[in-house]
From TrEMBL, chain A:
One Pfam family it belongs to: BPD_transp_1
Localization annotation: Cell membrane
Entry GO terms, CC: plasma membrane
Protein name according to UniProt: Raffinose/stachyose/melibiose transport system permease protein
CDD domains: TM_PBP2 (cd06261)
Keywords carried by this UniProt record: Cell membrane, Membrane, Transmembrane, Transmembrane helix, Transport
Keyword Zinc belongs to the record: no
Transmembrane segments annotated in the record for this chain: 26-48, 85-111, 118-145, 157-177, 198-223, 256-277
Automatic annotation (TrEMBL), chain B:
Record membrane topology: Multi-pass membrane protein
Keywords assigned by UniProt, alphabetized: Cell membrane, Membrane, Transmembrane, Transmembrane helix, Transport
Main location, first listed in the record: membrane
Residue span(s) of domain ABC transmembrane type-1: 72-284
Protein name according to UniProt: Raffinose/stachyose/melibiose transport system permease protein
Pfam families, A to Z: BPD_transp_1 (PF00528)
Organism: Paenibacillus rhizosphaerae
Amino acid sequence: MNTSTAVALNKQVAATRRKRFSVTKAIVFLVLGILFVTQVYPLLWLLLYSLKSNEEILSGSFFALPQSPQWGNYSSALEGNYFRYLLNSIFVTSVTMITVIILSSLCAYAISRFRWRFGGAVMVVFLIGMMIPMQATLLPLMIIFKNMHILNTHLSIILPYVAFSMPIAIFILSGFMKTIPHEIEESAVVDGAGIGRIFSSIILPISVPPVMTVCILTFINIWNEYILAATFISSEKLKTLPFGVNSFVSQYSVNYGAIGAFLVLGALPVIIIYFLLADKITQGMVAGAVKG
Amino acid sequence: MNVLKVSRWTIAAFVLPCLIIYIGIVFVPILVSMYSGMLDWNGIGESTFVGLANFKKLLFHDSVFWPSVRRTLMFAVFSMAEIPIALLVAILLKRYVRKPNFLVSSYFLPVILSVVVVGQLWKTIYNPASMGGMLNQILDAVGLHSWGRAWLTDPSVAMYSLYFVALWQYLGYHTLIQFTGISNVPDDVYEAARIDGAEGFKADWHITFPLIVPIFKISIVLAFIGSLQAFDMIMVMTGGGPAHATDVISTHMYNMSFTSMKYGYGSSIAAFLVVLCLAATFCINFIFNKLEKRYS
């Protein structure tokens, strides 16, 4: 009884408040709505564009739905090496992610838990490196890789991808590992576990949440990376998805619908993953931004 | 604080794989490019050591360089100007929308897309109306035909078209960061402020703002460093053209080294970029340390 009157009262208060702010609220929703349209409509437009025939695209009816969906655009896009690019991207991204996780969790553990003199210094090295722009290493790396004869292999992009993903990974992981209570390791040592055992069966399992964050950040960055791949890779069969999309689009510059279809296909994997994991991804990207 | 005492070999096994790859891929190339910035070299044949000649030429005799520095800095200015807008959006979302998650994730959508998809998408939007470009078609449809233009090939607007795409892509990122920051301010702080008579934007000015200074710093570093590195989007959309009208520092470096084959000269630009990035980060950190001290 009591609670229900309270609820009713609250509702009344809320109702008057809502009325009072209705004009402000309308403006606010208008602004947020316009923003929604500008952020999302271009993507929707691309989807419509990819289903139109050349005549429809050129006729200027940018708002109209396609008269009959031109699935042909997609089949001509798929005739390009879409699946080859997709597989390459999956391969490169997953190898990078696994390597980054293994190497940087080892290093983060040493920095955050071992008693040794240079822990802080190592961390500083990584922090400084975070500010170095990747493009500045583009030319020297190209020469170095050429001399190592690994230019135009997947290794030549995986190595820099791993290296440039490490600082943020170490930063996030060591930040987390510092908060693990020391008693856990002490009791493990008493029980006779070696350092490798402690790491693999205690530390890694508790660190799953930050590891997921690192995975998400690495995935988004590496999956979308273009310029390194475009500089170091030249064979068609090794191209990753962004590079493949760009070369397809530059080649077929008159078949507008097929270009649109290829762009949609290029965006599709990451959009699907975003729909499934939107909250995780946004949280991860915020955690990643905190690196500054 | 750190308690585990382990042998030297264990430390080496944990740290070295990471450190070796990192130093080999990040620091060694930087040092190499500092050195090759002093060479006259096309990347393949013989090289001659010319000392600081490249840097002298870069700073005093390169008609493309300083405009490209200016555009890089303008890029940073525009990106930072976007942050207050993102903050406003975040405040509105927090205050007026009951379930803001859907809107926040929609605004964020462009951030996760590859720069190739975003760049090519906007290239298509900027196309002339006769090639199906949406922007010019919209302008035609609302009777502003005379406003239409070749957005990416007209030197007077091309750079602004590029700024806009970057702002469009990253608005969601800044909104999300500010939104998370605001959400972490405990509700009772506002409750207390209301009792003291501060509500609405007044409360924001006195409470939200000081409390999210650290979050502001994150956004600014992100915007600044991001714009110094703005590169792939420009390469995808214009490649620095028409006639260097959209060249920034990094595209200038790329074109010099890979198109004009002036490897040594390109390296000197790369060295300049590294120094600029480090200096900018230190400046931002310095300013914000002062700000945070004042507010806490």
